[in-house]
Amino acid sequence: MAEAVLDISHLSKSFGALKATDDVSLDLRPGEIHALIGPNGAGKTTLMRCLAALDEPLRGSIRMEGRDALADPPATHRRLGYLPDLFGLYEQLSVRQCLTYRAWAQGVAKHEVAEAVAWAAAQLGLADRLGEAAGSLSRGLKQRLAVAQAIIHRPPLLILDEPASGLDPEARIDLARVLRGLRAAGITLMVSSHILSELEDYSTHLMIIDGGRLLSFEPLAAGGPEAPTVDVEVRFLPGRSGLEAALAAAGHAASVVDETAVLTLPGDPEALAAALAALVRAGLPVVSFAPRRTSLQCAYLELLKGARP
Q1: Beta-strand (E) ranges in the chain?
Q2: Contact 67, 160 (CB under 8 A)
Q3: What is the three-state SS of 81-142?
Q4: Residues of 124-146 as b/e, b for ≥16 C-beta within 10 angstroms?
Q5: Could you read off the pLDDT of 57-81 as tens digits, one per residue?
C-alpha cells in the first residue's frame, strides 16, 4: 500500500467550550479524492485549516509524507495547495502575472517559473487566457485561476473549501472535469462541498463530519485493490425471458427486476472484465455493466440520523 500523503491522528481543536474538531484520525493516500461533507458548523473548515497548517490544533498530530506538518508550517505550505471558500485575486494583473506572482511566493525556482505557469494554466484550461486581466474573467474562470494558483508549485495534496460555491451548472461540470484531471496528474484532493451530487461524480472516498467528530470515512469507488467485492448493476435487453435461469446457469443467483440484476463480484478490474465476458458468452443480452456507487446523499442522511439522538 502506498505511503499516506497525509496522516492525521487524534486531532482536536476547541474554541472555548466548542469542540470544532474532536479526536479525528484518518489518512489520505495518493490518487484519492476525498469528499468532506457535513452540516454548517460541523467543523469542516477548522479541520481543513489545521491540515493546511494555518490553525494549530489543541492536541493530535498531522504528518505529511511522513513529516510533522505542524513543526514547520512554511515547509508544509510548500507541499500543499489550499483554496478557502472566500478567496481574492489581484484583478488588475493578467492571468499570467497572477500565476507568476504565486509561483514566486511558493518558492518555485526562477528558471522553472515559466514552465510552472504553462503547466498550471493547461491543467485548468486557461492557456488561452494568460493575457487577460483576472478581473475580466467570469466567476467560473476566476475559480479556475484560483485553483491554478493553488497548484502552481505542483503539490502532492490540494485542499478545496466549497470550490463550486456560486458557480453556474456549466461551470460546476467544468470544475468536476478539472478535479478529475488533477487526480490523473498525481494530486490527492480533499474537497468540501454541500453539492453532494457533484461530489459523487468525482470522489473516491467519503468523509462525514458532525459536531467536530468524524462519523464516516470510507471508500466510494466501487472496485479497486482495496475492495474485495463490489455490487455490479447489470441491465439486459427488455422483453427477454429466462434471464434468471440463464444467470443461475452462469453461476449467479440473482433476481431480475425491470431487466436489471445486481451481482456481487470480485472487485479487481481483471475479475470484472472476466465476469462480463462470461455473461456475454452465456448468451445473456447485456446492455450495461457498471459497479454501483454509494449515493452520497443517502449515506450522509442515514449516518446523521443514526448519530444524532
Answers
A1: 6-15, 18-28, 33-37, 59-64, 67-68, 80-83, 157-161, 188-192, 205-210, 213-219, 229-236, 260-266, 286-291
A2: no
A3: EEECCCCCCCCCCEHHHHHHHHHHHCCCCHHHHHHHHHHHHHHCCCHHHCCCEHHHCCHHHH
A4: bebeebbeebbeebeebbbbbbb
A5: 999 999 999 899 999 999 999 999 9
DSSP-derived secondary structure letter, 2? P
Number of other CB atoms surrounding residue 204 within 10 Å: 18
Q: Is the model's pTM score more than 0.85?
A: no
The strand pairing partners of 67, in sequence order, are 64
For residue 148, what are the CA distances in angstroms to 20, 38, 98, 141, 296?
29, 26, 10, 10, 27
CB contact set of 273 (below 8 Å; sequence gap of 6+): none
How far apart CA 257 and CA 262 sit, in angstroms, is: 9
How many residues are there in the chain?
309
Do 282 and 246 meet the contact criterion of CB atoms below 8 Å apart?
A: yes
* pLDDT per residue as tens digits for the range 105-155: 999 999 999 999 999 999 999 999 999 999 999 999 999 999 999 999 999
